[in-house]
Design goal:
The complex is a heterodimer of chains A (274) and B (476). Chain A has 274 residues and is mainly beta. Helix content of chain A is 12%, strand content 32%. Chain A has five helices and 14 strands. In chain B, the strands form ten sheets. In chain B, strands 1-5-4-3-2 form a five-stranded mixed beta sheet, with no helix packed on it. Chain B starts with a helix and ends with a strand. Chain B is mainly β. Chain B folds into two domains: 276 residues, Glycosyl hydrolase domain, family 43 (Tachylectin-2, Chain A, 5 Propeller); 157 residues, Trefoil (Trefoil (Acidic Fibroblast Growth Factor, subunit A)). The chains are: A mainly beta (274), B mainly beta (476). At the A-B interface, helix 1 of A face strand 8 and strand 9 of B.
Chain lengths: 274, 476
């Protein structure tokens, strides 16, 4: 169906993310001549519809065990991803092994902390983000790279799933064709045998205490418990959970929880940013 | 020689895989199939669509104005309601997709008379929804009209329309019922509402992973939950149809009820490996297992026992049972085991009558008079989703045929005569009905194989609730 999106991408998408920096988005605002739309109130899609700023008090998983507190790095733009069909296991392992900044796999960032990331420059290539079908976008010129400062945001999702698309859009950043990095700290009351269960749009990889726990490859929609890791141990006290989520066109999001040995969600944890 | 055999095997495989529908079947995002004055219609993305007189041979020529994408169609009373996602005056740039409805009193392309379009659904320019792929459901329990819409971008939503005008009810606000599906559809069965959606990758030809999933709910507005209790708002969905049989990427489900117990589903396949990987119309029987819909595999030609669901006896020629003179029960365990060959047609055919032979039902003993080869007869037309078949005794041309007086016989030679052409359709419970609708003098009258006793059968009216009308094709 994404082919059909081309039709509406031309009709309806007036946003061009010419630069991956705050304030760069230009929103077209045509004048309606249709009374239906003169009355229609556009939905509020601001950040606080989807997220709260993380507080100082430790959070807990929600009643279904979903971890909602995450430190999210502004997306690393990957304009070369014109199709999710390239998300094979080996491509993803190579991509996720790439170090975009020093300490990428050890950092527990402060809210607002900035890191310098080397990313591919984005040429103005016409409408982006919503609905450009996979494999049908114009070929860019030879890529050029630039160092870009990206900021970490410590957030609590208001939903069971973390809407990365809305997170990026709220920062006026390109919400598609990007790599998102996420990290959180899960505090266990005792050593626990669990399985990490995640779903993501599109592909993702998850690590617990530096060890790979789960890879979700391919062109994927977010589905609760889509992939579940082998049994792992959450040690008593602090456990660091990291994720890398990558997507081409479409809306990125993810959800993650731990399941106990009987497959039930684990809720007796606390969740912090540090 | 090996090359020739390999080529023959490939050719046979190709026939088996593609003996479903024929003609100009190239389409993407087909609407639900509707029938108007005996002609089947389905509309696709872009303008127009396909039409067919028998449901087996299709051609282009159906007319739908507006272009746009992903239409759906529904017959309500004596009118046809068509919806699609497209442009609408004054909405450009304000929306992220829109859906409109229009009526026609006929779908005949020579006299089609679509009404003015009504705008019924839209998504805001930055909404968590992309308003395309509308799909219609007339609730059979209430008469209320519903429309789902949305795609891979955010929520799938449902709104209520007025079944008389197809305008959106003023009080009806969109309700989110799923996320990240494409090409949704709604249907009702046995107290459940079903939301079907397409997951996977579209538009990637032979590599498209598109697949059709569903959830169900006691309320039309959800929650739609899959077989493991997962809400479709959490990405849930139970598989209805995925790739296989040399086609990939099923998407855009449509439901068609032939009559009680005989249901079909339509879709497109992103790529038909027998047609250069083009996107084609697909039609399958729809089965129900524990109130979950499952697409049937296409009927595969082969040699079978045709077993009655009534007693489990097998369809056979009324000829002498010929004993195999080997083997005894209660054998001595110390003697060596030897393979006993099957009885062959050549062992018995010489004693069979040369003319017509009656048929009956009996204990299945995998003997030649009980082994029936079912072969698609593509040049004789067909019915919705499949060609007619001939049913012949394995290794011979002796063919099952209807008689003018509504009985059954096996004629010595298959000739292609109408009374030798059989419609084989899998029913919702997995059994089959076997029908002749071409008996001279009784054209159009569907005469089904019906048991009259454990050992006897005739041609009669199909009734899904009558076990005498049901058959199984068993390869054993």
């Amino acid at each position: 169906m994404r082919k059909t999106a081309l039709f509406f991408a031309v009709l309806a998408c007036g946003t061009v993310f010419a630069q991956n920096r705050p304030g760069a988005a230009q929103q077209a605002q045509p004048t309606s001549v249709n009374p239906v739309f003169d009355k229609y109130k556009q939905p509020d899609v601001s950040l606080d519809v989807y997220f709260d700023k993380s507080g100082s008090k430790a959070a807990t998983p929600d009643k279904d065990g979903f971890i909602r507190r995450w430190s999210l790095l502004e997306p690393i733009s990957k304009p070369e991803i014109r199709s999710n069909t390239l998300f094979t296991d080996s491509w993803l392992r190579n991509e996720f092994a790439h170090e975009y900044f020093e300490g990428q796999m050890t950092i527990l960032p402060d809210d607002g902390q900035t890191v310098e990331v080397s990313i591919q420059k984005q040429a103005a290539r016409g409408p982006q983000g919503m609905g450009m079908p996979r494999g049908m976008q114009a070929q860019p010129a030879a890529p050029e790279y630039e160092k870009v400062p990206l900021k970490w945001h410590c957030l609590d999702s208001k939903r069971y799933n973390v809407k990365l698309y809305r997170f990026a859009k709220a920062q006026s950043l390109r919400p598609t064709e990007g790599l998102f990095l996420a990290v959180t700290v899960v505090n266990a009351p005792a050593d626990m045998t669990v399985r990490l269960a995640a779903g993501s749009n599109s592909a993702s990889m998850w690590w617990v205490n530096g060890q790979e726990a789960l890879l979700l490859s391919g062109d994927r929609r977010m589905v609760v418990d889509d992939g579940v890791s082998k049994a792992i141990t959450l040690k008593k006290g602090k456990n660091i959970v990291r994720g890398a989520i990558i997507n081409g066109p479409g809306m990125s999001d993810f959800c993650l929880r731990f399941l106990d040995e009987s497959g039930k969600p684990v809720t007796n944890l606390t969740v912090t940013n540090k | 020689m090996k090359k020739i055999l390999a080529a023959a095997a490939l050719s046979a495989m190709a026939l088996g895989a593609s003996a479903q529908i024929t003609g100009d079947i190239f389409i993407h995002d087909p609407s639900t199939i509707v029938r108007c004055n005996g002609v089947y219609y389905t509309f696709g993305t872009g303008s127009g669509g396909l039409m067919s007189d028998d449901g087996y041979t299709w051609r282009s020529g159906a007319v739908r104005p507006g272009g746009g994408v992903a239409p759906d169609a529904l017959k309500i009373g004596d009118r046809y309601l068509v919806t699609y996602s497209g442009n609408y005056p004054g909405t450009q740039g304000k929306t992220h997709g829109i859906a409109t409805t229009m009526w026609a009193t006929t779908l005949n392309p020579d006299s089609v008379d679509y009404s003015k379009e009504e705008l019924v659904a839209w998504a805001g320019a930055d909404d968590d929804c992309y308003c395309i792929d509308p799909a219609l459901l007339l609730d059979p329990t209430t008469g209320r009209l519903w429309m789902s819409y949305g795609t891979y971008f955010g929520a799938i939503r449902i709104v209520e329309l007025d079944p008389k005008t197809a305008k959106r009810l003023e009080k009806s606000e969109p309700v989110d019922i799923a996320i990240d599906c494409e090409a949704t559809a709604l249907m009702y069965h046995n107290g459940w509402y079903y939301l079907l959606g397409t997951h996977g990758t579209c538009c990637d030809g032979t590599n498209s992973t598109y697949n059709i999933v569903c959830g169900r709910s006691r309320e039309v507005t959800g929650p739609y939950v899959d077989n493991v209790g997962r809400d479709m708002l959490q990405g849930g969905g139970k598989m209805v149809l995925s790739a296989g049989n040399r086609v990939t990427g099923p998407g855009h489900f449509g439901h068609y009820v032939e009559e009680e117990g005989c249901e079909k589903m339509s879709c497109h396949f992103e790529a038909d490996f027998e047609r250069s990987g083009k996107s084609v119309l697909g039609i399958r029987s729809l089965l129900w297992k524990n109130d979950w819909p499952v697409a049937a595999d296409p009927f595969k030609e082969g040699t079978f026992e045709i077993e009655s669901e009534r007693r489990g006896y097998a369809l056979e020629l009324a000829v002498d049972f010929v004993r195999i003179n080997a083997g005894r029960g209660f054998g001595n365990a110390s003697t060596p085991n030897e393979s006993i060959p099957n009885q062959m047609l050549s062992d018995v055919i010489g004693d069979w009558p040369k003319g017509n032979i009656d048929v009956r039902l009996g204990d299945y003993m995998f003997r030649p008079h009980q082994r029936w080869t079912v072969t698609a007869v593509g040049d004789k037309g067909g019915y919705l989703g499949a060609p007619y078949y001939k049913i012949t005794i394995e290794g011979s041309n002796r063919a099952l045929a209807a008689t003018a007086d509504g009985e059954l016989t096996a004629v010595p030679q298959y000739t292609g005569a109408p009374e030798q052409l059989w419609r084989i359709e899998q029913l919702i419970d997995g059994t089959y009905r076997i029908i002749n609708e071409k008996v001279p003098g009784k054209e159009g009258k569907q005469l089904a194989l019906v048991c009259t006793g454990d050992c006897s059968l005739t041609l009669g009216k199909y009734d899904f609730n009558d076990v005498n009308c049901k058959w199984n094709f068993r390869d054993r």
